[in-house]
Amino acid sequence: MKIKFPDVSEILLTDIDSDDRLTDFSLDGCPEKLTDSVKVIGIRHPISVCPSGNRYAIVSGHKRFMAAPRSGLTSIPAFIIPEIDDASRLVINLNENFGQRHYSDIEKGGILNKFKDAGISDETIIEEYMPLLELERSKKIFLDLSSARTLSPKLKKLLHRARVPVKTFLTFYKWDDLTAAENLFSALKPGVNKWRDLLDLIDEVAARENTTPEKILSQDEIKNTLATAELNPSQQYDRIHQYLYNLRYPVLSEMKKQVARALDEMDLDDKTRLKFQETFESNELKLELKFQSEKELSRQVEQIFQALQSGSVEKLIKIFSL
Fold first, then answer.
1. Class of domain 1-85+92-97
2. d(CA 57, CA 19)
3. Is the pLDDT of residue 4 over 60?
4. Cα–Cα distance between 183 and 200 in angstroms, integer?
5. Tens digit of pLDDT for each residue in 211-247?
6. I want to staple 180 with a disulfide (CB 3.0 to 4.6 A). Which of 10, 111, 114, 217 is the partner?
7. Helix, strand, coil % (nearest 5) of the chain?
């Protein structure tokens, strides 16, 4: 669809329907930098609107529209497009922003659902409009992304801010109650990789214990960790991750505890490090010594010799021989 834009008109902000959010795809709102820019140089790039009843609806430029009143403007430059249907408004917006906006998977799911709500068939959306979102024409990807509408607004915002991909968050579609997940991730504020690691562990522990993810997150260890104000989000994450790891791999966790106890007995220098395969698939151990003087090296070697004499090294080796 090709639209010929007319000359720019100056439109009163009150003549624009601010409640019509059809083509507002962003979950970020209006950035402060844009407002600051508008205060200094005004609106340099007109928005696009079309007639909607006795007012105008925005086709593209929601952020600029939001920045205008915050910058003290009462009107805004705009291209007025002849009245068009919802699907056409969506297409024009995507074409105008193609290559400039990089939507999160949560935002992409919202856009696909807007096409669905506009009466466009799934097949047409997949074939014609998914490429505008830089998505391959895939039925599965379409279903995975569009199913994001079942998630709560709070969880969607958390997923969007962390840029969590759909292949990671689609596990939520199987959850009955997302309240515990919202509380957990809003407190921890993890990066995208930590989202993946934590969700993988939750799913695996739930399968191992033959229970639900919600019940896993309701355990006292996790609730108490989140309620401990002395711990920052990173420390809370580490403690919860370790707890879930212990539930998922109880044998490995016990062996790691045995290794820790053996190292305590060996009482090595802080600059002496033991290296081993954490899956315990290999019984090869390595000692790494870091030193800047002959004296430092001598001290570390002496402590290793004492550990050999005490039998603590033998205890360590036996752990890896089981």
1. alpha beta
2. 9
3. no
4. 18
5. 999 999 999 999 999 999 999 999 999 999 999 999 9
6. 217
7. 60, 10, 30
